[in-house]
Each structure stands twice: as C-alpha cells, then as structure tokens.
Protein 1
Amino acid sequence: MDEKRIIAVVGATGAQGSGLCRAILNDRSGEFRVRALTRNPGSDKAKELARLGAEVVAADVDDGKSLEKAFRGAYGAFCVTFFWEHFSPEKEYAHASAMARAAKRAGVKHVIWSTLEDTRKWVPLSDDRMPTLMGKYKVPHFDAKGEADRVFTDLGLPVTFLPTSFYWENLIYFGMGPKRGADGKLEITFPMGDKKLPGVAAEDIGRCAYAIFKKGNEFIGKTVGIAGEHLSGAQMAKALTKALGQEVRYKDMPPEVYRSLGFPGADDLGNMFQFKRDFESVFCGARNVGVARSLNPSLQTFEDWLAVTKDQIPIEKDSRRAAGE
Ligand SMILES: NC(=O)c1ccc[n+]([C@@H]2O[C@H](COP(=O)([O-])OP(=O)(O)OC[C@H]3O[C@@H](n4cnc5c(N)ncnc54)[C@H](OP(=O)(O)O)[C@@H]3O)[C@@H](O)[C@H]2O)c1
C-alpha cells in the first residue's frame, strides 16, 4: 500500500499548480504524492502529468461537489483561482470560497491559498489617485483574492497564505515583453517609475509551496510572501539587454496612460502597477526573497531565468532595419 500522503493541486495544468506537481513528482523519495485536478483529464498536459506519475482527477472550481470529492483523502490542498479566464472578481471570490468549503468538508490537514493583497486596505474606494473599477474594486484581480483570505480563516482551516509575485513569464505569454519604440529600439513598459517590482519564475512558486507542505505545522496560520528578486524596470531592462544581446530600454509611463492602452484588463493592471509603485515598501516588504530561497534553494534570479528562457521571449523584427533604413 502507498503510504504517501496526497497533495491535491488545483490548476495542476497551469503555471503555479504544474510547478508544484513537478516539484512533488521529482522528489521520488519524498513523503507526498500528487493528485492533479483538471477539468479535462484527457488534455495533453493532464496526460503528461499522469505519465510522470500523478493521479489525475476531474474537478471544476464551479462545482463544489467535484472539489470536495477531489480533496477527500488528501492531506494537503493547493488552491489557486483563475482571474484571467473570466475577468470577474465575484467569480474569483466564489471559487476561492468553494475551495475553502470543500477543503473543510474533506478534512484537509494543510491548505495553501495562493493569494494577493486586498489593495483597498491601502487605497480605499474614496482615494481617487486611481479609479474604482467594477463598482467596488481598485485592483479587481488582487482585491477579491485578498477578500477571500477571510473565508479560509473563518472556516478555521489550517491554512498558509501564499502571496505570489509578478511572473517573469508575463514577458513571454502576457504581452509584456520588449516592444519596438518609435526609434525601433526595444523597450519594456511598466508604470512603476524607479520603484522595484517583485518578480518570480512561475515554476518557483510551486517549489516554494512544496517546501511549505513539507514543513507542515511551521507554516500553518502564517503568510509567506515570495519573490525571486525585486527589480526596478531599469534593472530588468539591463538584464534583458545582456541576455538578448541587444539594447532594451525601460520606459516609464503614467498609470493613467497605461490604463487607457485598451487591451482587456489594462485598467486593472494600470491600477495594480500604480499600487506596487505607490506602496513599494509594503508590497516588496511582503515578499521576502530570503525566505523564498530558504524554502527553495534553487530559486531563480531574473538573470538565471533569462538564461533558460531568453529564446522564448517574442521579439518584434526591426522593420526599419528590414526596410533597409
Ligand atoms: N501572471 C502573473 O504574473 C500572476 C502573478 C501572481 C498571481 N497570478 C494569479 O495566478 C492565477 C492563475 O494561476 P496560474 O497562472 O497558475 O493559472 P494558468 O497558468 O492560467 O492556468 C490555468 C489553469 O486553471 C485551470 N482552470 C481554469 N478554469 C478552471 C476551472 N473552472 N476549474 C478547474 N480548473 C480550472 C486550467 O486547467 P484545466 O484546463 O486543465 O482544467 C488551467 O490549466 C490568476 O488568478 C492570477 O491573478 C498571476
């Protein structure tokens, strides 16, 4: 009989959850085994997890019963929500609550909730430095996560809160990589002034979560904010210049201009960057690189991450050069 304790992972085929699955699967002599939750056990990503040794089960965060069934018998549950699938803070809150209730009913012994700040604690709705969005949020994809923290606490769950950081993968998959400026030079644009942005390699979130499960009681009831490095836009541009072998500049932009860029979620992200800029010491202070490294000694710096991923960062061709200018 397999004596290993089960960790049920929500979002197992996604960025955070898959990192946790791999961390558990790679530790063959470890005390845990992984139960990967997915809406579609037949997908390529789910089949790959099964091939690596995960137990793959169907569950949907819209269906509390499926969550409870998937959490039953598990020692641990990793809970994450998917704001960018639906852009609804209310749904995100409902999904977090459904996971918390399912964990309670299933008797899970350790829950990790991947959360972010409710920014309204620092920027109340009456503060007009940034617009109120969707009627009652400042940073919708943060605020509902932070608001949901209480659901885990109120249910008396053995929970560790895990505030995460900006994934550097956003430079690859989220349209935040270098773009050509008017003069054809590459630039990264964040409305952060000279303030520091805590960032992380997405894979390292799962590795830190795994270490938190391994340490068990030490982290129950605690908040453990993690980052790989805190870097200003200028420092990120310098590292990109070195890795890509061509100049990348940092372009600061007023948050109000960023909010009006017109892509879905631009207003939410404009407010998010402004919050990180205006409350740099709070936000960076809540994400401790030393703690993250002590949990996960292979924690990557931005330079480490770039060394592995630089060829995946989409770089627009210099049309001026292509046109022979
Ligand atoms: N991007 C960043 O810099 C950043 C930083 C910090 C926090 N976050 C937060 O991270 C969260 C997303 O996590 P992620 O990046 O790990 O996700 P992700 O890579 O976008 O993966 C989403 C996964 O969620 C699963 N999923 C979607 N809807 C589901 C549902 N109804 N029921 C069950 N599973 C569902 C999908 O799995 P299946 O298709 O297999 O079901 C998918 O693989 C967001 O809330 C975001 O705000 C992002």
Protein 2
Amino acid sequence: MKKLYVKTWGCQMNVYDSERMADVVAPLGYAAAEDAVDADLVIFNTCHIREKATEKLFSELGRMRLHQKAKAARGERMLLAVAGCVAQAEGEEIRRRAPYIDMVFGPQTYHRLPEMIAKINRGAGAVLDVEFPPEPKFDALPEARKTGVSAFLSVQEGCDKFCTFCVVPYTRGAEYSRPVAAIVAEAERLVQNGAREITLLGQNVNAFHGEGLDGKAWNLGRLFYRLAEIPGLKRLRYTTSHPRDMDDELIAAHRDVPQLMPFLHLPVQSGSDALLQAMNRKHSADDYRRIIEKLRAARPDIALSSDFIVGFPGETDHDFAATIKLVREVGYAQAFSFKYSRRPGTPGAIMPNQIEDGIKNARLGELQKLLREQQEDFNRRMIGCTLSVLFENEGSEPCMLFGRSPYMQAVRVPAPTRLVGEEMAVQIEKAGFNNLSGSLIMANAA
Ligand code: SF4
C-alpha cells in the first residue's frame, strides 16, 4: 500500500476536493497517511484567499523538498503535487520556482490524477494541468469511499460575478451546476453510507441552476424539496450564498422543508452602498436588509452568519459606520471578518485609495468586538433551552459526544458512543463563545 498525504488550506470546497482526490487515487493503491514525511504522494491543496498564500506554500514546499531528497537517497520516490486555487492562478510560477514539483493542477482537473501519475511514472516529465476542461469533472469522479455523519456534497462550482476583491472567477472558472439526478444519486449514496446531514457546497451555491428531473433548470430551493424526500436524511444545509441569488423559492424552502436547518451564511461584506458598488456586489445594503426580513418572516428563528471585509479601497469612516449599523440591526449568530488584502489580478488590487494598515486594524478590532458580543449573546440565550443535537463523533474528552445544534453551534454532551449519528434532545446548561454544553433529556428527538 502506498502512502498519500494531503494538506488542505481554505474553504469547505477545498476540504471536499481533497477527499475526492483521495478517492481518485485509492484504486492506484494510495491510502491516507497521518504524516507527510514518509508519504509516496504529497498533495498541497491550496487556497488563494488568504494573504501571502503563495509564500506560505513555498515555505512548506521547501521543507517537503528535504523529505523528498531523503527518500530519493534511500532509492524511493516522493511525488509532490500542488493543487487548488494557487496552482490554478500561479501554476507556471510554481513550476519555475520549484522545478522539483511533479504535478501542478487546478480545481477542475484533479479527476485526471491517475493519468498524471502514469505520465510521470513513464518518465514523461512533470505535469502542469490548469485547464478548464470541457468535460465536467464530476462525471469522472469515483464514488466517495467514506462518509461521516455530516457530509459535504458539491452541487455547483465557479462564479460569474467578479466581485472586485475575489480571485474565484479566475481560479474556479465560470459557474457550473451539476444535474439534479447526479446530486440526488450522490445524496442517496451518502445517506446509505451513514450521513444524516448533508451540506450542499458551491462558491455561489444559491446560483445553482442544474438540469432538473423534468429536463428544465431547477433552482436550489426546488432541489431542497427533492432532497428532503430521501429517507434517513435528517438535516440539510448549504454554503456559500450570495444575496443576489436569494430567490423566493429558496426562502420558501426555509419555511416548508423541516430538514433545511435554520442557519444561513449570507455574506454581505459591507454595510455601505458605495463600497458594495466598488466591490461589484450588485446589491445594496437595503436589498440585504429586505432579504433578511423575508427570511425571518419565513423562518423566525433563523440564525445568520456573514463575511465582512474592512479596509476595502476607498472605505471612509462613514462607510465603516454603515457596516457597524448593519451588524447592529441584523444581529449575527456568528461571522467571519477580514482586513482587505490585495489579490493580484483582481480589480481591487489596483484601485486607488488603498487603506493603510493601522486604520484597517482599528476597524477590524471594533467590528470583531461587536460580532463577538453578538455571538456570545446568541449562545447565552440558548441556556435553559432544549435543542435538537445531531451527534457527529466522540469529543476530545472521555464519554463526551460532539454534535451540532440546528443553528450550527458546537455542542458537547456526556452521552454513549452508540448515539453517534442520532439526533437527540439536549438541555443546554452552559454557553461559551464557541460552544454549548448540556445533557440529554429524552430518548430520541428525531
Ligand atoms: S460572488 Fe463570491 S465567489 Fe463570486 S466573485 Fe464574489 S466573492 Fe468571489
């Protein structure tokens, strides 16, 4: 058996892709290894969103090169591969700076890994494969081999929206939606293999418009109604959404489909219309407020999450105050907030009026303080409530299980291992910033 080590940076799409890469090479005899040092194939699945992603990659590669050389001295081979969005955006540069890399491939071509490995084994040289191929990658992927209680299912990839801060349209390509029949079949297999919760993934997941079972395009809302018919599937979630694609059918699904959990990550990025325009978001802060109102009318207990960027070029104190105002009005259960950082090749990187770091830090500090208070408050309000918790696995402490509430909160409960995969009623007793704890109060809440 050969050893495979995959290191993943970035979003859930990348986590999903890494698992599928392992599935793709499993028939070649590769099994997952805990450690890269002695692996036969090492894949770095990269993310381009964070600052200095390329430099961090090169420092990891430098370390791995030493292990590759040590293996070579023993007459063994370590194949090194760089995948993901940095590979897609900077493939040539990676090959130039690290010629010892065997394979560089983007998010759209990892289904070709067996061919790439065969080519290297034939001595045909290193492989650079960063095309956007005409054949959909999903058609060529094997079935997933292992499934947890909570599984990811990629339904959509790519983006045509070109927000001015984002590299996704350049690294993941144009928006593509999988056919509904393929999604339903994959969801049924996941449930047969033990999944009780499925999170639908896509860079712009609610732009989904895959071919439906009637041959017409279905939107995401309609897809949820169909997936909810799968016996044994208790929970459905989706991420990441764009406000522009929150259509009425999707909002109605939050009202009508009990399996669709009352939690939504809906990034707004800024509360200022001037900034939203500069970011090319194509919606206003009031459009976003109206969507939140509709969602709360459809599902009053829905918990909200968002992404925020502070210090986008041109952001004034007035713009930032509009973001704080929006956060106060909406009230978030959790959120992610970042300082703007330039992404080469995006319009934002060459905009005038870049904001100096000191201002960005001060604004980020103020925003994160408010978001933290909201998250703590949201969690504290759960104390004394009974929540339905889906147990995903054993916790780090003995005799404790880890699960999630409908609102995505991590919950720790003393409970027997046999309850992994079950949805149980839990009385919440304590709440911290990042998790809740409590005790079982009845046999089965499902
Ligand atoms: S919609 Fe999302 S993925 Fe698309 S460009 Fe904007 S931030 Fe990037």
